[in-house]
């Protein structure tokens, strides 16, 4: 499953879990959109990054509300699987 959204106001994990349940899938392949981790508490950031590690997505393309510091941390955790997202950027999902 690839999640494509604007901002995860309801939470990254909540959004993914809801999508997995609705689609009947059991794997997060990728994420495109804001994670809303920028304004989250440090505790929530740590818990969410641990859950992202468990999901083991092929890619995570994070945007605006992820925040610069969290983008850097996600890049540190995910390496090349992390893609910072900017306006007019193109991603090939083949």
TrEMBL record:
SUPFAM superfamilies referenced in this protein's UniProt entry, alphabetically: Metallo-hydrolase/oxidoreductase
Gene Ontology molecular function terms on file: transferase activity
PANTHER family: METALLO-BETA-LACTAMASE SUPERFAMILY PROTEIN, METALLO-BETA-LACTAMASE SUPERFAMILY PROTEIN (AFU_ORTHOLOGUE AFUA_3G07630)
Protein name in the entry: Metallo-beta-lactamase domain-containing protein
């Amino acid at each position: 499953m690839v999640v494509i959204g604007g901002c995860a106001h309801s939470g990254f994990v909540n959004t993914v879990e809801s999508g997995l349940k609705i689609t009947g899938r059991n794997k997060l392949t990728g994420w495109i959109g804001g994670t809303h981790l920028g304004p989250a508490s440090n505790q929530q950031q740590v818990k969410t990054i641990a859950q992202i590690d468990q999901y083991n997505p092929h890619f995570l393309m994070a945007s605006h509300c992820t925040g610069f510091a969290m983008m850097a941390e996600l890049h540190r955790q995910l390496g090349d699987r992390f893609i910072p997202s900017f306006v007019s950027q193109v991603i090939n999902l083949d």
